[in-house]
Specification:
The chain is mostly helical.
């Protein structure tokens, strides 16, 4: 595993992160690593969405179909 050192973290940001970590019962390091893991997992989401085929379906028709299905329940 690699080690990252963060510099020039604004005091307000550091204080909020420390509070969030404390509220989660975690050390600041553990909390920061968890958040970085989550951010890195989402990094490819845009590329995945861009790779989906364009089915040329109107958004309004999808919304209407969902609303119709809800009213039929």
């Amino acid at each position: 595993m690699r080690t990252l050192y963060l510099r020039n973290v604004p005091d307000g940001v550091a204080a909020k992160l420390e509070k969030l970590a404390g509220d989660a019962g975690m050390s600041l390091n553990m909390f920061a690593v968890r958040e970085l893991v989550e951010i890195s997992r989402r990094a490819d989401n845009a590329a995945l969405l861009d790779a989906l085929p364009d089915l040329d379906i109107e958004t309004a028709s999808v919304v209407a179909a969902v609303e119709d299905a809800r009213t039929q329940r």
